[in-house]
Hints:
Two copies of one chain form a homodimer.
Chain A: H1 15-24, H2 31-42, H3 49-55, H4 61-73, E1 77-81, E2 87-91, E3 96-101, E4 107-111, H5 116-126, E5 128-130, E6 136-141
Parallel strand pairs in A: 3-6
Antiparallel strand pairs in A: 1-2, 3-4
Chain B binds a DNA duplex through helix 2 and helix 4.
Amino acid sequence: MTKTSSERSSSEIGFDEALDRLRVAGGRITRARRSLLEDLYRAAGRVTVDELAERHPDVDSATLYRVLSHFESVGLIDHVHLGHGPAGYRWVGHRSVAVVCEDCGRVVDVPADELRPLADRLRRHYGMRLSIGHFALTARCEACAPDHSHER
Amino acid sequence: MTKTSSERSSSEIGFDEALDRLRVAGGRITRARRSLLEDLYRAAGRVTVDELAERHPDVDSATLYRVLSHFESVGLIDHVHLGHGPAGYRWVGHRSVAVVCEDCGRVVDVPADELRPLADRLRRHYGMRLSIGHFALTARCEACAPDHSHER
DNA sequence: TTCTTTGCAAAATGTTTGCAGATAC
DNA sequence: GTATCTGCAAACATTTTGCAAAGAA
């Protein structure tokens, strides 16, 4: 249930705090919610819905989506769309952005701060508040694009 | 069929050149392909499959996907997955990035140059060459996130 | 008890595929 | 003429929804 401090950022919400949030939100702590919450809290990084479904065969997938949506609305998790592949859910507080190699699928996590200047410009000049961590960037890694690439 | 020069970048492929490419690729220039090619060439920005389907009621959607896939493999168009909804297709050479409001779905196009500094850093520090235009950024627009928002 | 949440089944997307017939070259 | 496309229908994958029954509080 606990993780080493190196894996958890200080701004992160703890497990018990998360339970409190759920209670405050007025929701009920059901078996499905508790076990999914634990799983998401424990999970190393991003998990997909089908991974969760596999680890919680007792939970219907409709419930799964509803619970994830609930957790997200309460601000406990967020989800990322990894280009093509499935969406990945993870505990909030990981301040990083996924960069996916569109050829080999390798994912490099980049600190969210790298996007800060861009986020500022987008807000000021385009009125769009970047949701860092809710999207993935697509790229080509060195192995897949040796060099000279004319990236678009 | 022609667009004002301000809308087309110099690096862009012309319509006739595109037809040549299709011929060189060995494919046949069918009615569906020709009219879709024209549409995509003419289109102001990104078009979704259902927009194309609406404008080409004679073309079956299965054909639509196949034709789009063909055009893409020949390097005439590319597509972007806009978070949830359907993918957006457009003529290659448009150097912009889509920023999608995750609440209302509105898409704001931002010049690719805005991403240049980030792209440079990603290449130098992470060995990833950003594929600008092959992904969408997720954000909240002013209407959906009035202000003071704690973006995650 | 009472109101929320779940499971199940069915629907809504968005995209792909198999196949026989149409068509470009 | 013949190999390639197309339309149609059906399959797929993913997510959403309606509703009665199960379960928190």
